[in-house]
Amino acid sequence: ASRAAARALDQGPRKPRMAAEPLTDSHGRRVSDLRISVTDRCNFRCQYCMPAEGMDWIERSGILTYEEIERLVGILGSIGIDAVRLTGGEPLVRRELPELIGRIKGLGTIRDLALTTNGYLLERHAEALAGAGLDRINVSIDSLERDRFFRLTRRDALPQVLAGLEAVMAQPGIGSVKVNAVAIRGFTEVELHRFCDLARTSGCQVRFIEFMPLDGDRSWDPSQVLTGAELRVLIEEFHALEEVEREPSATARVFRFADGQGEIGFISPVSEPFCSDCNRLRLTADGKLRTCLFSLNETDLLGPLRDGTDDAGIESMIRQAVRGKELRHRINEPGFQQPDRTMSAIGG
Fold this sequence. Notes:
Blueprint: H1 2-11, E1 33-37, H2 66-77, E2 83-87, H3 97-106, E3 112-117, H4 122-132, E4 136-140, H5 146-153, H6 158-169, E5 176-183, H7 192-202, E6 205-210, H8 228-235, E7 241-243, E8 253-257, E9 263-267, E10 280-283, E11 288-290, E12 299-300, H9 302-306, H10 311-323, H11 343-346
Parallel strand pairs: 1-2, 1-10, 2-3, 3-4, 4-5, 5-6, 6-9
Antiparallel strand pairs: 7-8, 8-9, 10-11, 11-12
């Protein structure tokens, strides 16, 4: 160690690293947001995501380690990624997730670190997540009625999920808690009053997400999509709404209740695509980089990581993939192809 210190003194102070070229795709969009699936496994079997019998899980040896995720976030953080969201599967089934959060926060380049969870294990982990440095959390709750929650998720777990939501709301270090609900025609309409009451009384922003063609049963049909515009009309029958100015690259159109009590959001990728300023990349649990949720192609980063490719080589692969980022997802166009992977295998 003393010899290394002496060499460092002989060489003088290290030159600061030159600012990296921004990570930009061929359509001029600056990419700054990364969604990381830490596992493809899940303790729910939601109808819009996977079959009742589950999926064929990736072997554990084929999953990115925390060290590998930390290295990739370090590389991406050096070229402009400054927001990371951890997803799954269900991320809290991955052991010691707060350790990964601490590793990512320790890099010093990620200004916004978030988590999306189904909430089932949240009550026991809320304090540790906050202590590790988590900034924001989204909890998926598709129904606020126990029987209907079971019908959609195939798990009788609503009380545990609501307890988890309450536990994370009590953590002062977590600055934002949102509730996500997938909107499905013929299912969601009857619960709009309940979700609005939650948004108005809990301090959580409730967001409705249009049902997308990423289900494991391959039974998605456009007729099942309950659009954000339709939801707004239904809600405004009993609550006046005022739109909040959209932030650049935001996925949701956000509205506040006109009396000032709470906010509600609509994520409408099917009826109102927000591809024009998309700034997101996705990294699957098995180390594949995806430039769109509906990508038909992926870039393998796990193999090069384990084969000894250096950081410059990995960066070059990432830049090449980003240059080919899709202009739009084409859901509503003739010839649209649903990706082979389901939502649980991609990461939301």
